[in-house]
């Protein structure tokens, strides 16, 4: 298994789109110009403010770095540094002069065992392997020039998925879910003493409580969550649990498509619902869902009261009207689907098909005519039509929320 194969598909898709935005291109050019003008080098600053850890000084850490580099296919020379700080932190610094730099806070090195450090090392190397430095989120979000809110949302959403990819790289190096979870528990809590005993199941239960709280309040993630560059630690552990139980880590594990959908559901706890968000992708999804729901419901020549009720659960009470021009919606469907394909990643397109299938099942069954329309929409969204059969035939009672 190579590092490229375990990267989050959301990370890849979002990064490709962000790399084409004028703001990202402009800041990349600005950084390149600063480097060309001979701004003080990163290595010079590290040598003056931190301690370089040679293999003699830190044999175990150096061995871990070498092992992780081999697993992830990193061939560039690596320099390790330690700096004094009471906070747990580590960072991978953009390569310079053919060297890659990884920094660790003194408290992290003092408090993490070898397996936990292996996860941290793999995580930081993952950022390099996946070229996350190419999208300088910090410069864009904290720079002197403000950026549009829509771009800020896309940047932070991508950053969270970039962390998921880096976590997978760390877990791939570690091959020990419990050690990985312990590391993230320490990072989140700061607790290392024996007064608290780590329990994986209890830690993961925080995610369930978050979902229950959101459902009871009838709200989605707060705006503060939307602009966070890192997923909550319990979400990261839950996402890594899905990863460990997938075909990427074990023979006969869950399909990668199911893994990515599961992770997207978790990340949805920190993102605005696509029914509420004002981003291009969310708008495209809403337009398609609106048309698709009505066309599927009308496939048999009429829309039932139950189908109207489900429609209004998504779009609001009294949003359904008898005078909807369904013929016009049918004509516009290809255009709406093309906008979704243009702006939305495949896992989120699959989520859209899932929501349409569940809406179709709301009145107790799905007819052949409705399945035909669902499969047409799936085809236009470039989603395998077998996905429709999977969702229609699933009787497990999927816990679904429009994200």
UniProtKB/TrEMBL annotation:
Residues 59-133, 153-241 form the Peptidase M48 domain. It is found in: Cell membrane. Its main location: membrane. Pfam families: Peptidase_M48 (PF01435), TerB (PF05099). This is Peptidase M48 domain-containing protein. Gene3D superfamilies: Metalloproteases ('zincins'), catalytic domain, TerB-like. Binds 1 zinc ion per subunit. GO terms for cellular component: plasma membrane. Keywords: Cell membrane, Hydrolase, Membrane, Metal-binding, Metalloprotease, Protease, Transmembrane, Transmembrane helix, Zinc. The keyword Protein transport does not apply.
């Amino acid at each position: 298994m190579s590092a490229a194969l375990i990267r989050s598909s959301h990370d890849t898709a979002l990064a490709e789109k962000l790399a084409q935005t004028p703001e990202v291109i402009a800041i990349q050019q600005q950084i390149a110009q600063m480097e060309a003008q001979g701004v003080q080098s990163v290595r010079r600053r590290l040598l003056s403010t931190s301690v370089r850890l040679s293999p003699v000084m830190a044999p175990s850490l150096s061995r871990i770095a070498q092992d992780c580099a081999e697993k992830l296919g990193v061939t560039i020379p690596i320099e390790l540094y330690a700096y004094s700080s009471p906070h747990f932190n580590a960072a991978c610094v953009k390569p310079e002069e053919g060297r890659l730099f990884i920094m660790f806070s003194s408290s992290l090195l003092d408090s993490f065992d070898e397996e936990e450090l292996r996860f941290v090392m793999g995580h930081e190397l993952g950022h390099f392997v996946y070229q996350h430095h190419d999208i300088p989120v910090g410069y864009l979000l904290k720079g002197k020039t403000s950026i549009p809110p829509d771009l800020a949302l896309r940047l932070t959403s991508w950053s969270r998925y970039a962390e998921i990819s880096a976590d997978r790289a760390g877990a791939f190096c570690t091959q020990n879910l419990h050690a990985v979870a312990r590391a993230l528990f320490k990072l989140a809590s700061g607790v290392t003493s024996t007064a608290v005993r780590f329990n994986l199941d209890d830690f993961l239960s925080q995610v369930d409580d978050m979902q229950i709280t959101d459902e009871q309040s009838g709200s989605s993630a707060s705006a503060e969550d939307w602009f966070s560059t890192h997923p909550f630690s319990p979400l990261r552990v839950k996402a890594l649990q899905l990863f460990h139980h997938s075909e990427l880590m074990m023979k006969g594990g869950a399909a990668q498509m199911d893994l990515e959908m599961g992770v997207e559901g978790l990340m949805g706890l920190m993102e605005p619902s696509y029914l509420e968000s004002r981003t291009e992708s969310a708008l495209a999804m809403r337009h398609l869902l609106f048309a698709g729901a009505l066309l599927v419901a009308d496939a048999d020549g009429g829309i039932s009261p139950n189908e109207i009720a489900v429609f209004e659960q998504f779009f609001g009470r009294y949003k359904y009207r008898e005078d909807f021009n369904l013929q016009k919606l049918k004509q516009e469907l290809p255009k709406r689907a093309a906008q979704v394909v243009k702006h939305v990643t495949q896992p989120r397109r699959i989520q859209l098909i899932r929501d349409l299938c569940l809406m179709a099942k709301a009145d107790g069954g799905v007819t052949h005519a409705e399945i035909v329309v669902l499969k047409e929409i799936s085809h236009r969204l470039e989603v395998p039509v077998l996905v429709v059969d999977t969702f229609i035939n699933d009787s497990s009672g999927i816990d679904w929320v429009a994200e």
